[in-house]
Amino acid sequence: MSVDLELSPKQKRAAGERCCEPVVYPDVQRDHALRMAEVAKALGDPIRLQLVDVLHKHAGKVCVCELVPLFDISQPTLSHHLKKLRDAGIVDSERQGLWAYYYVIPDALEELSAWLS
Amino acid sequence: MSVDLELSPKQKRAAGERCCEPVVYPDVQRDHALRMAEVAKALGDPIRLQLVDVLHKHAGKVCVCELVPLFDISQPTLSHHLKKLRDAGIVDSERQGLWAYYYVIPDALEELSAWLS
DNA sequence: TATGTAGATAGATGTCCGTCGATTTGGAAC
DNA sequence: GTTCCAAATCGACGGACATCTATCTACATA
């Protein structure tokens, strides 16, 4: 006949007791997380986040030459940030003559936005 | 008396015509953007994003020892990622004996979430 | 054809990041 | 006290990142 003893923490562990409920992570989430992390990483720079903010607030397309004076960085550096945003699928551009116009791709941020809610 | 001539692009530019509507960026947004970029940067790694996902789905607190086997990284690396999330103000931890329990700070992601919507 | 101009690319540099193995810290058990 | 254990920290290494200057590419003007 068994006695209702208080078990020591070590005995509890040995008996299979856990620190908390077991945690599993569904594989389905992994590539989902990968895509969202890519977007988050692109937004993880103050200048890029402000760029998206400006482009979004000007619902239309904004010329690069209007963006350059907004920040204290060189034109090539801004071009580099715009490329990062383009590579992440957040913005796209359109050329008209000498000028290039950038805009936020509709719903590009929706996946991340939905996850955060 | 002035004639209604078609101006060349260069003449237009010389006359002050712009490629698009002038764009200004309010200073108020800058520190706002800085804080959000910090959060986005912390989420900009697949493992950290999955960590937040797991912690959030387990509304309670999750023990580190349950998190380690979920990812193919060493325990010190996981600890490093948890520190990054803590530094960004996204998660916090609580120690109980040998074990450490992590949880998502309520509303830590709200600012970014609101901006994305 | 030659010149000017907007934007992208190339190359260099210093810093930050993700990862690891080894060690340290602080409780708990014997 | 000594041993065991979970988690954090340390030190190192390779790769990625933000930034710059200099150059290149298209296109438009003359």
What can you see in these coordinates?
2 copies of one chain form a homodimer. By secondary structure, the first copy, chain A, is mainly α. Helices cover 49% and strands 12% of the residues of chain A. Chain A has a 3-stranded antiparallel beta sheet with strand order 1-3-2. The interface between A and B is large, with 46 and 46 residues. Chain A binds a DNA duplex (30 and 30 nucleotides) through helix 1 and helix 5.
Strand content of chain A: 5-15%
Count, helices of chain A: 6
Helical proportion of chain A, percent range: 40-55%
The assigned structural class of chain A equals mainly alpha
CATH topology-level name of the domain at 45-117 in chain A: Arc Repressor Mutant, subunit A
Q: State mean pLDDT of chain A (0 to 100 scale).
A: 88
Q: Write the CATH homologous superfamily of the domain at 45-117 in chain A.
A: Winged helix-like DNA-binding domain superfamily/Winged helix DNA-binding domain
Q: How is the largest sheet of chain A built, in terms of strand order?
A: 1-3-2
For the biggest sheet of chain A, the summary is:
3 strands, antiparallel
Low-confidence regions of chain A: 1-9
Order of helices and strands of chain A: HHHEHHEEH
Distance between the termini of chain A: 53 Å
Pair of chains with the largest interface and how many residues each contributes: A-B, 46 and 46 residues
CATH class label of the domain at 45-117 in chain A = Mainly Alpha
The name of the CATH architecture of the domain at 45-117 in chain A is Orthogonal Bundle
Q: Which assembly state applies to the chains in this document?
A: homodimer
Task: Report the count of strand segments of chain A.
Answer: 3
**In one word, what is the shape of chain A?**
elongated
- The whole-angstrom Rg of chain A is 25 Å
